[in-house]
Design brief:
- Strand 1 and strand 2 form a beta hairpin.
- Helix content is 27%, strand content 44%.
- The protein is elongated and about 55 Å long.
- It has 2 domains: 80 residues, Sandwich (ATP Synthase, domain 1); 45 residues, Single alpha-helices involved in coiled-coils or other helix-helix interfaces (Up-down Bundle).
- Strands 1, 2, 3, 4, 5, 6, 7 and 8 form an 8-stranded mixed β-sheet that branches.
- With 135 residues, it is α+β, with helices and mostly antiparallel strands.
Amino acid sequence: MADTFQLEIVTPEKKVVDTAAEEVQIPGKNGYLGILPGHAPLITELAVGEITFRTSNSTETLAVAWGFAEVLPDKVTILAETAERPAEIDVERARKAKARADERLTSGDTNVDVDRALDSLHRAESRLEVAAKSR
């Protein structure tokens, strides 16, 4: 069995990652999945969260939001709506988004789309966590 698999992370705008990886952790819709070389094939929906992957000489983290992942024994392809490296995250913008989502959720306004506000909150929190790990 191989020691690595090909990892591709793609957004509608660009290919974010294309490398040989030893391990990847992805935020599946029902919780995080750990993938190693030779993993059984599967397709899963992505949630908001962070992807962590290990190559032969480093461990990297990205903030991701929504999409799908296809896992094959020798390749993992992640199609994400967004995927950001820590250096690409606008921390101030993420803080403001978190504050707006918190405000909506605690306002008591019955017209607030709670699911959308929760999605915004989780995305902002994920972005802030990933950004903090690189500083």
